[in-house]
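User: Earlier you gave me the apo prediction for this protein. Now I'd like the version with flavin-adenine dinucleotide bound, so I can compare the two side by side. Same sequence as before, with the ligand SMILES added.
Assistant: Got it. Here's the input I'm using:
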Amino acid sequence: MKTHVKALVVGGGAVGTSIAYHLARAGWDTMLLERDELTSGSTWHAAGLLPYFNMSYATTHIHDYSIKFYKGLEAETGLNAGFYVVGNLRMAQTDARMDEYMLYASTAETCGVPYEWLSPAQIKDRYPLVRTEDLKGAIYHPTDGYINPADVTMAMAKGARQHGAVIERKWQVDGYDWTGSEWRVTVTKMVEKGGNLVPSDEQTVITAEHVVTATGNHAQRTAQLLGLKIPAIPVEHQYIVTEPDPALVEWRKSNPEHPVLRDADAKWYVREERGGWILGPYERNAPARFEYAVPDSFRADLFPLDLERIEEEYMSMIHRIPSSETVGLKDDYNGPICYTPDGNPLLGPAPGLQNMWLAEGFSFGITAAGGAGHYLAQLMVEGEAEIDMASLDPKRYGPWMTTEYAARKNEEAYEHVYILHHPDEERPACRPLRTSPAYDRQKAAGAQFGQVNGWERPNYYAPDGFNDHDSRSFRRGGWWQYAVDEAKAIRSGVGLIDATAFAKHRISGPGATAFLDWFTCNRLPKVGRINLTYVLTSHGTTRTEYTIVRVAEDDYYLISAGAWHAYDQDYLYNAIMDKEPEFGRINEQDVTTQWGVFAIAGPKSRDVLQSLVRDADPETVLSNKRFPWLSMRNIELGMCPVRAVRVAYTGELGWELHHPIEMQNYLWDQLMVAGEPHGLRLVGARAQNWLRQEKSYRAFGTELGRDATPLEAGLDRFVDLEKDYHGKQAMLDTGVRFKCATFLIDGPSDADPWGREALYHGDTRVGRLTSGGYSVHFGKSIGMGYVTPDLAAPGTQLKVKMFDQLWDAEVAEDSPYDPKNATIRADIT
Ligand SMILES: Cc1cc2nc3c(=O)[nH]c(=O)nc-3n(C[C@H](O)[C@H](O)[C@H](O)COP(=O)(O)OP(=O)(O)OC[C@H]3O[C@@H](n4cnc5c(N)ncnc54)[C@H](O)[C@@H]3O)c2cc1C
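And here is the structure of the complex with flavin-adenine dinucleotide:
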């Protein structure tokens, strides 16, 4: 056996095999190790469906690549991958479901995925066995279908070998050691014993520059070997196969196969199988399994069928396809299907480890394998992928994540596969978990919380008895008016937002200044001042956004998005580790949970603070002279020491009040009392998100990410072209392929865009929205997004597709509200 390779892939399911294929195709010397046989994990019992449908831009790209790649495999390898392009018919029982499909169709369009709409009559006409009188319609994907999971894996394995990869079966990875330049991987020969697969005495060590783990249901063992927490835990998933249905057999004599049928409101998919039907439900109460490890006795095994659990879905299949009522069951499968808390796989660099890559937690692994292999190989070989992989990055869960959290959230993610994916959805499991001290006060004031990286954060405030769940919609939800009132309060009065979830780091020491100067693309601020700045990837695109506060000459306070805490921190700490020998000692300290943050904003915000601030000269302490815009001062509000930062993400006069977390309730109470005479209003994240779009403030994860440079994002004023920094040349070499712009939209009277919609110039698709919402200042919908540079000039007339119609969208000047920042800079009166 080879004992040194460039890349070692662990796990021979669909995902690992695809990764080995793509790495080998890219020219890397690659070996794949499988402890048993290829496909012996979840891959062997998958139903093989390849659903395009996904509300995420990155995942839709991944699925799209897979489908196209699988189609070409036979020509390349001579092996039939068993791909049946039968189409996919996703039916809707309600108007809300049709709205969901229309929003999804926008995402599909931005990725170039074809679809058609079918009315109930058209469905009946094409597929008479399907009951349609209670349907509203359906979306149909002609290019989608199903595949034989074992065949496609074998075809990828053959392709991998053709490109030079070595595949070794019956070798289990039992240990990983990083030598400083490569991984020493201890592997054990597995042998059969009494039907079990057990380790033999034969062990060897393989050295590899890079390791990818794609260990499916064994992710928890992988996590233990690597000393990581990996929230990939399987859940039971079953499907049943019926005997042949005589009505179907008869119909098929003169008709092609049915598309894969999905009755999302009934939570199932159905497809044909040898004259009968396969029913795959996503039922309630499917339990998580193997929370700590897969027992040795579990190989290519299944759990017993739990028919009672899927009775409701079974009955609804009979309702939808009445001829299926009389046919018996022929076969059943109940296997482990790996999940993660948000349902997305964990694909990318492992937290805190060098050259270690995770490809774990795949719940639609047959659909995703092709694209996952392609984009991960790009990331490994070229340093970046064409698409922003952040939403799949293994570091999106921080160290607060536990086994219990992952197991319960994964059960929820499974159960939610077919629920209505409202963009304003908030899922209930494992909450509240991470709360700031003021949580109870906020709750008592009517806060309707969302969860960000485990933190509870008010989305908006509503009166007693309001039900957030029932208020959700693809249009303007029942909460919309509250968010409007909150946004107006900030524009005309004063509002208070809890921003405690922000990630906060202190970077100090003799090497800190030189390091941050190299790490970030904007000039570093002077002492007492702040700057908005960006960290670039090696390809010159945006990796992180920081507000940097310079506290002292070599002492900096970095504020970044709470949702991306671990993801950003990993990049920061790795860079510090690399650069410390060059720049000198750099201390890093994560102070996220030590500091609470309230953002107070609005023309009356100074008046509120004025009555609380203690100072020798309280009249002037908040004046422009003593406390200019974009500066930081340590002030005292009553008895609370506050690091006040004069910025406001809403684009109004305002301050972020960073305070010791243990004094949060004291400060809250003080602000409530001081705010009362000024009509201070509690404001949530939804209003804030709308307000920042009126100012064209880009948000990380929407406008900002690894698929665009800061120059493409239109952030030229924060990019210093005079100094040298990480990623600068790559950014310049990339040029401006597309440009971020703000749009004022004359949309439907009852809906705003969500930031996933396609943009058109005439009949041509020219870009997509990345954010959307309502502008209280302009009284119409607003959005931000990317278009080709020639169409980004203010005044350009474009269209945005919402609810299957095109609506006027005009490119606005940057910061359409208060472009001169007059209100933010307002001085004491
Ligand atoms: C009933 C059911 C139906 C499904 N239907 C579909 C479907 O229609 N469409 C779809 O897209 N997905 C479906 N899935 C999900 C799909 O099966 C998985 O997402 C997919 O198989 C995951 O592939 P994988 O390569 O990540 O994991 P696996 O196939 O589980 O492969 C992991 C491999 O790693 C090996 N391994 C683990 N640890 C080690 C080690 N230490 N050393 C060496 N080797 C190791 C294991 O032996 C295993 O072979 C279904 C799942 C179930 C349970």
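For your comparison, keep in mind: Residues 10-16, 33-36, 40-43, 45-49, 172-173, 214-218, 237, 239, 333, 335-337, 362-367 surround flavin-adenine dinucleotide (CB under 6 Å).
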